[in-house]
Design brief:
Order of helices and strands: EHEEEEHEEE
Oligomer: single chain
Organism: Pantoea endophytica
Helix content: 10-25%
InterPro entries: Glyas_Bleomycin-R_OHBP_Dase, Glyas_Fos-R_dOase_dom, Glyoxalase/dOase/EhpR, VOC_core
Shape: globular
Number of strands: 8
Protein name: Phenazine antibiotic resistance protein
Largest sheet: 4 strands, mixed
Strand content: 35-45%
Keywords: Antibiotic resistance
Function: Required for resistance to the phenazine antibiotic.
């Protein structure tokens, strides 16, 4: 088995899908009132599931995950940081050196962490 779907619990699929559409430069493959989904050529899928959906059930709260993008080098980390900053993406952690290399963290409209880093 190979994991191929990440689901983020969100408040509003329209707002969140617009955010990710800007980040990915691609429209969602599926858009419903309480669910949106993006698919990628590498087989990964990202689902955005509204916590207001009648079929949503979870006993947890808060955002404890990161959606991470490993990019080829430090120049790409810096370029994405500038691009996202200029487009109004909220930055939680400015670029810095971590144990695994240069990285920064942005936030989506629901507070999910989006990390950009280089391969370790």
């Amino acid at each position: 088995m190979i994991p191929n779907l990440i689901i983020l619990y969100i408040d509003n699929p329209i707002i969140s899908s617009r955010f990710y559409q800007k980040l990915f430069n691609k429209e969602p493959d599926v858009m419903f009132p309480t669910w949106a989904a993006f698919s990628f050529k590498n087989g990964l899928n990202l689902g955005l599931w509204s916590t207001t959906a009648s079929d949503f059930a979870s006993s947890g709260e808060g955002n404890r995950t990161e959606l991470s993008f490993i990019v080829k080098d430090i120049k790409e980390v810096d370029a994405l940081y500038q691009q996202w900053l200029e487009s109004g993406v909220q930055i939680e952690q400015e670029p810095r050196q971590a144990v695994f290399g240069k990285t920064f963290v942005a936030l989506d409209p629901d507070g999910h962490r989006i990390r950009v880093c280089i391969p370790d």
